[in-house]
Design a protein that fits this description.
single chain; alpha/beta; Rossmann fold; DNA polymerase, domain 1; 8 strands; 42% helix; globular
Length: 289
């Protein structure tokens, strides 16, 4: 992201504030950061983490989909860098009562924000079979989606994570290291929080909010997110100036972005050893032309 003093930056997925702290340290002494997160638990931790930076850090409970409005509230016309660290945070997984983990018995919740009216239990107990199958297949890429959905319907009502795990394991016994509930839990979490739609909505907004030369850095953790980011960066970095494109688009189009890394940056073996959850992380960076 190349932080520099007097720069303006946004961490759209603040979490506990680790990335924000790194950005603020790198843009000292005068750089400023706006941190956004839907999760009040995360914001409380981030406020402690970022307290030493004083007025240089401004935090708000908001979705990154509201990026333009939040930047405008800061009185900024544009920013020098935006970071999006997509998906679930370790803190959310490690808080059993949030219902994200299939390793702890808890209410089937999975909401990033308590203001979200839709819980995972609402989807599990309310969706018709065909819609539940489609959800598991699309967001979880679960090959046993039909079998699992049928088992869920037989087990309704389901109110806890372990009740859902039992329904899954009854038709999908564990084989190897990957827990049979992994893809179903992922699918429900994505659906509850409308994660993919939020990413698709936010990427153009983020580019519009950048200054010329500003950078957008996006970390994704599964193929569905990464595909959206990769396709968006590739499309926005293409120039449509020669035939046959002019016949299709009727006008020339200059590239908006320059891809800094065409292949995603992944964690080193050393980092994976220290932090196993970084194993699936992919970082893509693009610069506004």
């Amino acid at each position: 992201m190349r932080p520099h003093s007097a720069g303006r930056y946004v961490d759209g997925t603040l979490g506990a504030g680790g990335h924000a702290r790194g950005i603020l340290e790198a843009c000292a002494p005068d750089g400023r950061l706006l941190g956004l997160d839907l999760d009040p638990q995360a914001l409380a931790l981030a406020r402690e983490t970022l307290a030493p930076f004083g007025q240089r850090a401004s935090l708000a409970q908001a979705s990154y989909t509201s990026l333009p409005a939040m930047i405008a509230q800061m009185g900024w016309d544009a920013v020098d860098g935006i970071l999006l660290d997509l998906g679930i945070s370790s803190m959310q997984v490690d808080t059993p009562e949030r219902g994200f983990s299939f390793l702890h018995d808890a209410p089937l919740d999975m909401r990033f924000s308590p203001l979200n009216p839709v819980r995972a239990a609402d989807l599990v107990n309310g969706l018709p079979q065909d819609e539940l199958i489609a959800l598991l297949f699309r967001y979880g890429e679960e090959p046993l989606a039909r079998r699992i959905a049928q088992s869920i319907l037989r087990a309704r009502p389901i109110s806890t994570t372990f009740e859902l795990v039992a329904a899954i394991e009854s038709v999908s016994p564990r084989r190897g290291r990957v827990h049979p509930a992994t893809k179903t839990f992922q699918a429900l979490r994505i659906a509850v929080n409308e994660e993919l739609a939020s990413v698709e909505e936010t990427l153009p907004k983020a580019v519009a909010a950048l200054k010329s030369g500003g950078r957008l850095a996006v970390i994704s953790f599964h193929s569905l997110e990464d595909r959206i980011v990769k396709d968006f960066f590739r499309e926005q970095s293409r120039e449509l100036i020669n035939p046959p494109y002019e016949q299709i688009y009727k006008e020339e189009r200059k590239a908006i972005l320059k891809e800094i890394n065409r292949k995603p940056i992944i964690a080193s073996e050393e980092e994976v050893t220290e932090n196993p959850r970084s194993r699936s992380a992919k970082l893509r960076v693009a610069e506004k032309i």
